[in-house]
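Please go through this protein, sequence plus structure tokens, and consider how the sequence yields the tokens. Keep your notes short.
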Amino acid sequence: MMSILKSLAIISVLGIFFIPRYSESAISCSVVIQDLQPCVSYLTSGSGKPPDTCCKGVKSLAAATTTSADKKAACQCIKSVANSVTVKTELAQALASNCGASLPVDASPTVDCTTVG
């Protein structure tokens, strides 16, 4: 009986060390900016379809924003940057779809980040 309890205790202790640690750490703003930086000139003075480099960044960002925390962090970052740069609203709202991607938010200063996630 004692050896069974001892074995269970050892298994429990070992289990603590081998249980995967899941944390919902959010994407950094620097990653968001890096991905969307190729889109800045298009969003401020472009027209038509976004350049391939921009779409590559949009798709990269879409792939990186999988958790609710990622989506909220990306939204706050995009909103902050969009407030400091004058973007064409129609281009910002259509950016993801024009790139064949799905982002949690538009690249717009008016996006409501409380609804994202």
